[in-house]
Amino acid sequence: MTMKKTAGFFMLVILFLASQEASALRIERLVMPGDLIQGHKKFEDACEKCHVKYDKVGQTQLCRACHEEIDLDILKKNGFHGGSLIRDRACTDCHTDHEGRNANIVLFDAGTFNHDQTEFVLQGKHKDLLCDDCHQADQKYREAGVECYDCHKEEDPHKKLLGRECSECHNEKNWHETDFDHEATDFPLMYKHKDVACESCHPANVSKKISQNCIACHRINDVHGGRYGKVCSDCHKARGWRKIVFDHDKETEFPLQYSHAKVSCDACHSGDIYKDKLKTDCYSCHKHNDIHLGQYGKKCQSCHKPYNWNKVRFDHDKTDFRLKGKHGDVKCNRCHSGNLYDEDLQTNCFGCHSRDDVHEENEGEKCEDCHNESGWNKGVLFNHDMTSFPLVGLHAVTPCEECHLSQDFKEADLVCNKCHEKDDIHKKKLGIDCKLCHNPNGWKIWQFEHNKQTDYILDGKHEGLDCHACHTEPQLEISLGSKCMDCHEKDDVHAGNFTSYCERCHVTSSFKDITLVR
Questions:
Q1: For residue 5, what is the DSSP state?
Q2: Structural contact between residues 298 and 345, judged by C-beta atoms closer than 8 angstroms
Q3: Sorting pLDDT into bands at 50, 70 and 90, what band is 21?
Q4: pTM of the entire predicted model
């Protein structure tokens, strides 16, 4: 087909389309990039509703003219579209069309959306909410209310009695944390009243006029049952219900000192505080606490003081018996078991400690000769040197119980072998009088001079003999014969024919050495 024929064909098409007004078929539809969304379907044959030829700014004005609520937000600078980041932008920057009937042209991601771009910045507890907690599924996002009451009217415990301006008292951080300025009322909240919940004083959450008298609110807390009257402020203050401010020292004849200052009022005032007259002596209040059952009389103040009931202050040193050492820790009733004013206690040790005498009176009744008040077993002053057995050498450092097996000290025997029988390597062959050879400084330090201490001189072969060579049998006292035949009878080759006087021929140096004595 030639160029002239082609041009003529297109001209015929254009003339044909222009004449088809009944079918609403337009040339723009030939170049339309795609179908409009379902909501814009009715504008497919009215392009001028959304498009202005060669004018993009004019196109945005057409969008706003159709979407009046958005246009109003932009003009008033409200909502998301009225924000500084959005209101000056073209609609087509975020929205497009011709994407098909079911296309979503709203470029919005709830998970990443920055709510600060709206007029309702999410603060406090609002930050933790889900979108659909405020935005209903069947409503547009912009339709959600921005006033507290729009969302919280169902939660209003005041039943509209305090109005709709929730923010006057509450904030986004915590619904129960109120900012209402009670100081501007006739009853400023001071001290403990600041921490009280509103409904504690305002039943039904109403702000009607209520009594400012303490008893009006605290009658249910009156532990006195009305016995102390209705003027609570005489004793209590708002800074603390339990902190009593009544000055007992100035307003009564009985100043409360020390422990009395810590006693609860009811401990003494059990009846009507305005009618019952209380006594001021100790015994009137404390007779039920008298663990002495009257045996120490009624003058409690003689021993006890208000600052500590259990700390006895009686000065026993001013009596005839001063309390020293362990006596200072002894309880009164250990000695005073009867009536304090009738009994006559002895002041000597044995008078109280006869039952503690482990010596069974064998050491007499003068305990103080050995013992003192610091303790029975402390600093015992007994001088053993004053006995018939002075302690010298190793005996001086030997524990008492090594020799004294019981507290009856006199039962100990003075004979060495009584204690050292197990140590006697001689098996009593040298008798039991150990001190003949040994001394208390040590078993191995011994000395015995046979030539001086006995009537039998050791010379010759006798001089080097072991003691046991002659002393062969156990005996209590050493007793050996001094004749040669007493020991050497078995060595007598003469069979007794030359009498028993061996020394007439023999000498101690050797049996073989013969010396005749005439």
A1: H
A2: no
A3: very low
A4: 0.34
| CB 359, CB 409: distance < 8 Å | yes
Give yes or no for residue 1 having a pLDDT over 80: no
List alpha helices for 162-242, DSSP H: 198-201, 214-218
Q: Residue 308, SS3?
A: strand
Contact 96, 51 (CB under 8 A): no
278 DSSP assignment? P
118 burial (CB, 10 Å; 0-12 / 13-18 / 19+) is: buried
| pLDDT tens-digit readout, 37-83 | 998 988 888 888 888 887 877 888 999 999 998 899 889 888 888 88
| Residue bearing tokens 């603060």 | 123
- The average pLDDT across 358-371 equals 80
Torsions phi, psi for 507 (to 5 deg): -120, 165
Q: 432-461: b or e for each residue (b if 16 or more CB lie within 10 Å)?
A: bebeebbebeeeeeeeeeeeeeeeeeeeee
Beta strands in 38-97 (DSSP E): none
Q: Per-residue pLDDT averaged across 301-309, rounded? A: 82
Phi, psi dihedral angles at 444 (to 5 degrees): -80, -10
User: Rg of the chain's alpha carbons, rounded to an integer?
Assistant: 62
Q: What is the C-alpha to C-alpha distance for residues 332 and 293, in angstroms, rounded to an integer?
A: 13
Residues 6+ away with beta carbon under 8 Å from 78: 72, 119
Q: Does residue 465 contact residue 515 with C-beta atoms inside 8 Å?
A: no
Smallest Cα–Cα separation from 331: which of 314, 318, 356, 349?
314
The Cα–Cα gap between 92 and 59 comes to 9
Q: Report d(CA 44, CA 48) in Å as an integer.
A: 10
Cβ-count burial 374-396 (b if 16+ within 10 Å, e if not): eeeeeeeeeeeeeeeeebeeeee
How far apart (Å, rounded) are the C-alpha atoms in residues 484 and 506?
A: 10
* Residue 239 structure tokens: 């800074």
User: Which is higher by pLDDT, 323 or 16?
Assistant: 323
- Nearby residues of 351 by Cβ (< 8 Å), 6 or more positions away: 345
For 370-395, the pLDDT digits (tens) are 888 888 778 777 888 878 889 899 99
Cα-Cα-Cα-Cα dihedral sign, residues 156, 160, 164, 165: negative
Kindly tell me the sign of the dihedral angle through the C-alpha atoms of 252, 257, 260, 264.
positive
